Amino acid sequence: MKPDSALRRRIAAMPKVELHRHLEGSIRLQTLVEVARQYQIPLPGYDVETLRPYVQVTANDPHNLDSFLSKFGVLRKFYRSPDVVRRITAEVVEDAAADNVRYMELRFTPFALASQMHFPLRDVMQWVCQSAREAADRCGIVVRLIVSVNRHERVEYGFQALQAACDFRDMGVVGVDLAGRETGFPARPFCPMFIEAKQDGLGITVHAGEWQGPENVRDAIENMGADRIGHGVRVVEDSGVVRLAVERGVVFEVCPTSNLQSGVVRDVRHHPLRDLYYLKLPVTINTDDPTISNIALSDELMLAVEALGFSPSDLRKYTLAAARAAFLPPEEKAALLEALRSEFDRQEQDSQQDSTGVLASVKCE
Fold this sequence. Notes:
It is a single chain. The protein has one domain (6-353): TIM Barrel. Helices cover 51% and strands 13% of the residues. It has helices at residues 6-13, 29-39, 48-55, 65-75, 82-98, 110-114, 121-139, 155-167, 191-199, 214-224, 239-248, 256-261, 273-278, 290-293, 297-306, 312-324, 330-353, and strands at residues 16-22, 101-108, 142-150, 173-179, 203-208, 228-231, 251-254, 283-285. The longest helix has 24 residues, at 330-353.
């Protein structure tokens, strides 16, 4: 977090909803150092500052896709044991709760977690699901899980992961996601499995319209049954795709800092988030990869206010929009919305009595 201000403290205290956060991009740097030492992972050094440029975007990094994705290549080396996977999962949940995230859909790529040590896929699913549930109960946050597959990896991996997603629905899995490199890797080979997942009752979210144009957003909606689009900011380039998304009620999971660091947007002041808002597209604000981008959700919301001109009342609308877009049964969604509205109302009342409006963060016991 940046230096304190009344607005920053107000945003930090707000209840939040996160729909687009990757487990693999959310690992504490100190945890990485400790894991590297324990398992003797070859690194240039074994302290946070030496490790930082290899796993986090720094001031010296170019803002482009290859530089951004290179951080994940290093991170895949750290998943050395069941305990490491469980620890990382629990800490991601704890960090979200500390930022007053009340509901989070945490996506993870089973093959990324399994590949280094050739873990069985179902074991990885079990470790993540169980650890996320235990941490959520301990920290007072609601967490659901989205299973992600990469379009630039083998299609059969996707089939296995999506089958596992269906099998683990009773342990918190609520959706599936297609991620990875858009350029040169069309989504079409994955369409049948996503349609099947939708028929099985899972929510569908697809990374599209990020590094390639709005035609990928159209493809995700029409051919994959997407309920939500990850990023999708380039949809503004085609009014026909905008109309399609509005008609279908497709929700956009926007991650401003990630878009800047990966080169999708050159200047944060020109980020299409406000355009999406004016076009009446349902929009949510998210972190994508907090560790890689060195942010929390509070930072993204602060950015929306400082750089893009949104108001704190707009942030409340975005938060409630995210809750409405959650992959939850109607009764659970209604309860989440009611809890959020009540907390927002209570904070507004408290802020009238206390000029600081500061509330305590959630603490894990």
